Amino acid sequence: MAISQMDNIIIKKSDLYRLFWRSFCLQAVWNFERMQNLGFLYILAPVLNRLYPEKEKRVQSYRRHLEFFNTHPYFANALVGIVARLEEEMAKGGEVKPEQITTVKMSMGGAFGGIGDSLFWGAWRPFTALVACVLVIIYLRKWEGAWLAPLFFLFLYNFLHFHTRIKGVMEGYEKKTKMVRLLKKRHYSRTIWSSRLIGLGLVLLAVIIIFFRDWRAIERLYFLAFFLSIVFLNRRRISSAKLLYLLIGISCAGAYIF
Amino acid sequence: MVSRPIVCGPLIGFLLGDLKTGLIIGALLELIWINVISVGAAIPPDATIVAVTCTTLIILTERTLQLSNNFQGSYRMAVLALTMPLGEIFRSIDIRQRKLNAHFVHYLDREISKGNLKAVEKVNYLSLFLFFLKGFLFSLIAISIGVYILPKLFSYLPYGILRGLDFAYRVLPALGLAIAFNTFRG
Question: In chain B, which residues have their Cβ closer than 8 Å to the Cβ of A23?
Fold first, then answer.
């Protein structure tokens, strides 16, 4: 193959940025049968188009990516980068086989899904949202700038979110499957652990602030009793809606009795 | 993450000219739904639709009702209690749509085999639009019904219930904070 043709095949940095922009549509056609498969194909389409100029091979590569795929939406980018690199090596005639790409997608999809769920859904989003809620509780009565709290939440949350997406594509492309070792080194467990600890402290702070608001003794007592009873019951299976109706029911009954 | 109640509540409030109410409702709902996560194939009740309809209805109808300070809390609590099931209803619609999305997968299976590769992008944008249309129509219908029904319904409530609702509204942060506490305890 002539050198000029080889240059055509190589994925450029601008392609990786295109993958990054497209990655926001990962769940656009989320379905129960193969989950994020079409989203993944949609993201990868520009790269496949560049790597396989011949129609025949291009159709084949599209068909390979129609299979089941599911992972955490932000960490999917790391896999996008890895798969782009593997496809590139295969298109250049390297030793990579199609089955290998499938295996990588399946196994690493599960691993990234686990990390992402516990980091983003389990710790980071609740933590940043709680920070914003506590800011609203603290500042609503004294200061007019409480509207900054949602913006603060968006900024704090998306800092890690965009970081994960951009680094995912770039490092996945550079380091391929060594990515996993890198993730281990990043101490995500420390982030999870500390955000939980600070979160607990913030909840207690908010409880104290609300408890010393100017309201009647019965309201204070009731507030504390309800908080403690839910904390000690700790039944996470009961949905929030049911607990809300329970609260309303008890309050209405109380209003008739007292 | 604009879809979280803590953001979309104040956003709706800002658009309708009552930022403070939006902030309060948004923060209350965020705390109540803070532990809701979608792991794997599980689809949780939709917090966004509850936050949007609840905030909109409260801001739109509170002006016409002109409530005294004693009953403002009870009205808000009543609206919140009635919009809460919308999250579950919207969830079931969502699940149906995601099941139907499998048709797109089969359609693309055929089209790609035929060599029509542009269909991937078309299907993606179409599906995105359908997701938007679903939320738009649902909240439009829910809000237009609510604006007519809620003030009338509220006028039928007896005094005791009103007092109970007001009381519940005051201690509502206890519920959210307890749920948050349990979430962070792990």
Answer: none
How do residues B49-59 score in pLDDT, each as one tens digit?
999 999 999 99
Give B144→chain A minimum CA distance, Å.
23
Helix axes B47-65, B5-15, angle to 10 degrees: 30
Q: How far is B64 from chain A (nearest CA, A)?
A: 25
For B156-183, the DSSP string reads TS-HHHHHHHHHHHHHHHHHHHHHHHHH
Report helix, strand or coil for A157: helix
* B127 contacts in chain A (CB < 8 Å): 28-29
The candidate with the shortest Cα–Cα distance to B79, out of B65, B96, B61, B91, is: B61
Give B171 to chain A, closest Cα distance, Å.
5
Prediction pTM value: 0.90
Return phi, psi of residue A35, to 5°.
Answer: 55, -110
Contact B23 A210 (CB under 8 A): no
CA A132, chain centre distance (Å): 18
In chain B, what are the domain boundaries? 5-185
Q: Which of A129-143, A162-176, B72-86, B109-123 has the highest mean pLDDT?
A: B72-86
Among chain A residues, CA nearest to B125? A28
How far apart are the C-alpha atoms of A196 and B185, rounded to whole Å? 7
Judging contacts by C-beta atoms under 8 Å, the chain B residues touching residue A244 are 32, 80-81, 84, 172, 175
Secondary structure (H, E, C), chain B: CCCCHHHHHHHHHHHCCCHHHHHHHHHHHHHHCCCCCCCCCCCCCCHHHHHHHHHHHHHHHHHHHCCCHHHHHHHHHHHHHHHHHHHHHHHHHHHHHHHHHHHHHHHHHHHHHHCCCCHHHHHHHHHHHHHHHHHHHHHHHHHHHHHHHHHHHHHCCCHHHHHHHHHHHHHHHHHHHHHHHHHHHC
Q: List the domain range (segments joined by +) for residue A95.
A: 3-109
**ipTM of this complex > 0.85?**
yes
The Cα of B94 is separated from the nearest Cα of chain A by a number of Å equal to: 10
- Let me know the angle formed at the C-alpha of A228 by A123 and B6, rounded to the nearest 5 degrees: 40
> Out of A49, A133, A157, whose CB is closest to B1?
A157
Task: Tell me which chain A residues have a C-beta less than 8 angstroms from the C-beta of B35.
Answer: 126, 236, 240
